[in-house]
Amino acid sequence: MNNCRHLIRLYSRPLLLPSIWKRAKGYKVVKRPDPKTLKMPSLADAPSLMDIIKEKIRLNGPLTVAEYMHIVITNPTEGYYMKKDVISEAGDFITSPEISQMFGEILALWFYSETSKMGTGKPLQIVELGPGNGTLMIDFLRVLNRLNYKPNDLSLHLVEISSTMQLVQANRLCAKHNECDIESPYNREGQTVSGIKIYWYNDLKKVPLNFSWYIAHEFFDVLPIHKFEHTENGWRELLIDMDENQKLYYRISGEETPSAKLLIRPPLQADRTELEISPRALGIARQLAERVDVHGGLVLIADYGHEGEKGDTFRAFHKHKVVHPLENPGQSDLTADVDFSQLRIAASKTPGVDNYAIVMGPVKQKEFLERMQAKVRLEMLLKNMQSDEQKEKLKAAFSMLVDPQKMGERFKFMAFYPSAMTEILDKHPPVGFADLSK
């Protein structure tokens, strides 16, 4: 009994450890760097894209096409869109707004016409995804000025990941502009000569949620895609590997990849042997649809694409010519035709609380422009031209836009409307998408 009391007293005492057992601090105070003072590495010190790709393959194995596109397009120092202005006759490709002012003017009139079915459309946000050289917005603003939109009636919000392209756009659109603090939701802000405010963002999610016109012209075709082929063992992903000569090549995955398990779902794979799927494109389409459904506005997508009938469209352009996409990464524009059938699935309204959007189209560019009276606009411009040379150039530009062998059928248009507009669109069919001549 005495022993028990002795043990209880012993274990009730505070435990005194020898000084050599005293625990020292297990951490070191490190001052966090100020983001405002951080700078990009110099171009001279930056590794080449090929070195980056080689190292990733060495460490992690073959790349998906989506990973490859992401590296080539968005690398901060060596990415294709990060280094230079690539949209011009001297660059790798040219877009419809650069071909003729008619294109941007007609798109602006389409937005104005369809907005009149909703109300005044003021105040208005114009949001462009991938604004290129800013030419489309210049044409938009010219039309809106004639339609009596004042500087306080609208603002421009441009989604652009490339600081180089942001500067190109700002120099064309603004009387003054400046970079913004890293804590700001926008990277750059500016103002036109007339006083219209312009903001640049690197992500659509940062754009304010207000009534907006959303325009995505040749935007979806550059978003990274996963490529799949249907084999006797099921769907397998096309990967990019490196051979013994340090040259990139395609290979088929031996097993079903996580991307195949996650992305290939009915009805995407019906009666198809090849698939190209962009999770980023599907996410942005759904985001745009939700924005217009909840906050009001319109979405217009213009891109070259198809309705699910194509499987292998991944390619590259250099100096206006098609080149192999795995050669000289970073020197060519990587692109894939937009699968509009997938955008429709992602954006269409569904039963229940989340209705998302009414989806119209796709329709061929030729049909859309002609239904928007592009020929009438052409005749007006021709009457105001003095020289035969100017007239021939304008006719050639118009032909480029509508000729089925050129852009007329390859490029297509799709629109998103708020789900609440069902009855209105039944009474007043969407201009450009419905054939009103019948």
UniProtKB/TrEMBL annotation:
<comment type="similarity">
    <text>Belongs to the NDUFAF7 family.</text>
</comment>
<dbReference type="InterPro" id="IPR003788">
    <property type="entry name" value="NDUFAF7"/>
</dbReference>
<comment type="function">
    <text>Arginine methyltransferase involved in the assembly or stability of mitochondrial NADH:ubiquinone oxidoreductase complex (complex I).</text>
</comment>
<dbReference type="InterPro" id="IPR038375">
    <property type="entry name" value="NDUFAF7_sf"/>
</dbReference>
<dbReference type="Pfam" id="PF02636">
    <property type="entry name" value="Methyltransf_28"/>
</dbReference>
<dbReference type="GO" id="GO:0032259">
    <property type="term" value="P:methylation"/>
</dbReference>
<dbReference type="GO" id="GO:0032981">
    <property type="term" value="P:mitochondrial respiratory chain complex I assembly"/>
</dbReference>
<dbReference type="GO" id="GO:0035243">
    <property type="term" value="F:protein-arginine omega-N symmetric methyltransferase activity"/>
</dbReference>
<keyword id="KW-0496">Mitochondrion</keyword>
<protein>
    <recommendedName>
        <fullName>Protein arginine methyltransferase NDUFAF7</fullName>
        <ecNumber>2.1.1.320</ecNumber>
    </recommendedName>
</protein>
<dbReference type="GO" id="GO:0005739">
    <property type="term" value="C:mitochondrion"/>
</dbReference>
<dbReference type="InterPro" id="IPR029063">
    <property type="entry name" value="SAM-dependent_MTases_sf"/>
</dbReference>
<keyword id="KW-0489">Methyltransferase</keyword>
<keyword id="KW-0808">Transferase</keyword>
